[in-house]
Amino acid sequence: MMTFREQLLHLIAEAQKIHREEKSLTMRSLRVIGELELRRAAPSCGMSVEKFARHIALTKDQYLKRSAASRTLRFIPEAKLLLEAGEISLSHLALISAKITRANRKVVLENIRGKSLREAKLFMSRVTPDGELLPEEEICELKLTLTKSQFALLERAREVLAAAGSVPTDAEIFMKAVGDLLTKRDPLRKAERAAARQRNLDDDLGSRNNNVEKTVENNDAAVAAPKEGPTIAATRQQQNIAGRYIPAAVRHQVWLRDQGQCTHMHPDGSRCQEKMMIELDHINLYCRGGEHSASNLQVKCRLHNNFAAAAAFGNEWYRHKLESVTHGRDS
Question: What is the pLDDT of residue 329?
Fold first, then answer.
């Protein structure tokens, strides 16, 4: 009968054997999956990636991770030694697959070996394609809980972005979505784009008219008063209907001037720092003849805009307004 020490040594030897075999099998798996990827096995078999992964006894995530790792090994064969030595893992190889280049491959390998996956992720967020390192920033962690249907949307976004040639991380998907949202909906960015377009237009018109003489006839035509007619009358009717809408050019001008920050001044002379729930406010009220001009408009947060409305119309009017809004939501 073996002693305790003999049993322990036997288990250690068995563990060593199993893990050497496991490493060997992992390397064989990466080689085979790499070949399958090169031969476009999934579409060639008429299968989706998910179905093909199940067909070869892997989950979709396992298959994608190993595919990415095999691409990394093809590009930097020296990473194989680090993987076999246990200095990096499959997850490390999959992580760097999308960002590895000939210029940064050396610095990447030097800085991820022996590091945890989290540390490797932080490093990869700083390294550029040229191998330079961006300044280190403080890291903020975000934990997100999703329903199954919401997670399916996240995975669909990953599939769409992967069309560019690499599988994005959750953080990359999130930042791409935030970037697209701000590009489309941020009033300040819209204003900046409009101002840039206007500058380009002015420059273009200036270059075109640089050597063109304006005739007296053209000047006369430009200043001649239009005759009243059905077209003019219809235009004025449309202007009256749209009278409450602030022209986009004016909105852009106000947003740029105020930089999307509430303009309310506190009694101590400091400016309100709020940049959320920002609204356009007429200094001279529109209902009392105030114009839709940049000089008569300012941006305010909803709190201070409502505060100004209550001051202008009275607290009783404002209370009735709030009640009508609340009742409208309840109905």
Answer: 45
